[in-house]
Design goal:
Structural class of chain B: alpha+beta
CATH architecture of chain B: Roll
Order of helices and strands of chain B: EEHEHHEE
Helix content of chain A: 10-25%
Structural class of chain A: alpha/beta
Oligomer: heterodimer
Distance between the termini of chain A: 68 Å
CATH class of chain B: Alpha Beta
Low-confidence stretches of chain A: none
Number of domains of chain B: 1
Number of helices of chain B: 3
Shape of chain A: globular
Radius of gyration of chain A: 22 Å
Strand content of chain A: 25-35%
Mean pLDDT of chain B: 93
Strand content of chain B: 15-25%
Largest sheet of chain B: 5 strands, mixed
Helix content of chain B: 10-25%
């Protein structure tokens, strides 16, 4: 015996990761009539739940946890999906088709779907392990944060991505004094063009957020093991009762890479979500695929849409129907009364057209590559979001003046 | 509490006890009604909870709000009585409501 451990269970399909991707893989298998055994293994104690509200409605106290469940508990039993919760996959034995989930235990699989998402990137500077420093990735992260919130007035958010800004919006509304620190020279730098960054910066400042750009964190200081301040690279110190860190996610693929899977930033998958290892698929935040929407560049997309649609692709492939994954990516972010909806990927854009006036708090950015529409960011502008999808999938070249004409519905450009 | 009846495209009827304050999408998901998904969690961002409101109920439930109406364009089979389930909040007033699930929502 090479592994030295007894196989305790075997599933025809074992899914590692019980987030949006893993849950939807199980649902898609059963919806497709898959009759084999299905195990859904997750390292958190909760049944699959939605993560997007963690930085929005759940943080705000507007939604209780039971309303975040992707399916009611009884659903999983009804569908004969075994939930293996509170259980972390440590390694994969590709030859034996086993996942080692904890010391001494092994779970056999026929097909494996890796849907383990990622872990929030942590600070590495001095003081990173003080109490009062929080990530927003899991229910327990947010419950801990909520537990400390009543006693906290000064909140420092490190990182001005979606998570940091959504949290800043909620906490400002709750009356906290919020400072947001960003190393880059604009917010949302990874996911939007500068015009959108500037708009969101102005909105957050107008709501009372102390937003500081181009600033690095030197270390965190504390008293009696609890954070009390953030030392900035410019030498100043920000007092803090609570710190939220939103500086990205590291895909949880180490066991797969260690088993020989190709990858680096996530695990590489083909159009059917197959990894380079036999009988092993990967879906969701941890899977890197070549996207037609990114000029065939390999991308890793962290979104509900990608999690669900890749899960369906993998499930169908397992059931014998290979349909390449090419769903149009979409995203949303709610901050204050602003609804940002994005369709497409802006990877490699060479031009941006503004539709409408940001001063009216209803406008869109249209991202172009070689005059073809590759993505739209729409703020309080649902028709552009809805109609923009067809422009992206048309691969037609558009005149930028026509795109900029806010009086013309986007769909009219396709028939022109 | 209100009883909501969801009728699938194949005619199957699903009756779910709904909690006041919850919306029609989450009520359906919690009740195991097939064909209603709510990928975005009920924030009117995905249009995967499309329903046709039984015409006799339309006056009580009301028709789609502008933003919702715009999102409905992402779905198929849009009719005057089309709504997104996540935008209908359960109250005693809609006890007995009947909605129909269009065919095109699936995995």
């Amino acid at each position: 015996m090479s592994s030295g451990s007894e196989i305790q269970r075997h599933y025809d399909v074992l899914i590692v990761g019980a987030g949006h991707a893993g849950a939807n893989a199980a649902i898609a298998l059963r919806q497709g009539g898959f009759a084999g055994s299905v195990g859904l293994l997750g390292d958190e104690p909760e049944a699959p739940y939605e993560r997007p509200p963690l930085s929005k409605d759940y943080l705000a106290g507007d939604k209780t946890f039971d309303r975040l469940l992707i399916r009611p508990l009884a659903f999983w039993a009804d569908q004969q999906v075994d939930l293996l919760l509170g259980c972390r996959a440590l390694s994969v034995d590709v030859l034996q088709h086993r996942v080692h989930a904890a010391e001494g235990s092994a779970i056999g699989y026929g097909k494996l779907i890796w849907a383990s998402g990622g872990a929030p990137r942590s600070l590495v500077c001095e003081g990173h392990d003080l109490a009062g420093i929080h990530a927003i990735r899991t229910r327990s992260d947010v419950d801990r944060l909520l537990g400390e919130l009543p006693g906290a007035q000064r909140v420092v958010v490190i990182g001005a991505g979606y998570i940091g800004l959504e949290a800043a919006a909620v906490l400002t509304k709750l009356g906290k004094h919020v400072t947001v620190l960003e190393m880059q020279d604009r917010v949302l730098a990874r996911v939007t063009a500068e015009a959108m960054s500037r708009f969101y910066e102005a909105e957050h400042r107008a709501h009372g957020v102390d937003l500081r750009l181009d600033i690095g964190v030197d270390c965190l200081e504390g008293s009696a093991g609890k954070v009390t301040g953030v030392h900035l690279r410019d030498g100043s110190v920000l007092p803090a009762d609570l710190v939220i860190v939103g500086i990205g996610v590291i895909p949880a693929v180490e066991p797969l890479l260690a088993a020989g899977a190709e990858g680096g930033n996530g695990v590489d998958v083909d159009a059917f979500c197959r990894t380079s290892l036999p009988d092993i698929y990967a879906v969701g935040d941890c899977a890197a695929h070549q996207s037609v929407f990114a000029g065939h560049a390999r991308v890793r997309i962290e979104s509900v849409q990608n999690a669900k649609d890749q899960a369906i692709t993998a499930a169908k492939s397992i059931m014998g129907t290979d349909i390449p994954y090419q769903a149009v990516p979409w995203f949303w972010s709610n901050q204050y009364d602003l609804r940002l909806q994005t369709v497409g990927l802006l990877t490699g854009y060479d031009d941006v057209v503004v539709r409408g006036d940001p001063a009216n708090r209803s406008f869109s950015l249209v991202y172009l590559r070689d005059s073809r529409v590759i993505a739209l960011d729409c703020v309080n502008k649902v028709p552009d979001y809805v109609q923009g999808k067809a422009l992206i999938t048309s691969y037609v070249q558009f005149d930028r003046a026509a795109l900029a004409d806010d009086g013309r519905p986007l769909k009219s450009l396709l028939t022109a | 509490m209100a009883k909501i009846t969801y009728i699938s495209h194949d005619g199957a009827s699903h009756v779910v006890e709904a909690q006041s304050g919850h919306n029609l999408m989450e009520t359906a998901v919690a009740g195991g009604v097939p064909g209603i998904y709510g990928d975005c969690g009920g924030v009117c961002a995905c249009a995967t909870c499309h329903v046709h409101v039984e015409s006799s109920w339309l006056a009580v439930v009301g028709s789609a709000q502008p933003m919702e109406e715009e999102m409905l364009e992402l779905t198929g089979d849009v009719r005057p009585n089309s709504r997104l389930g996540c935008q209908i909040v359960v109250s005693d007033e809609i006890d007995g409501l009947v909605v129909h699930i269009p065919e095109n929502q699936g995995y």
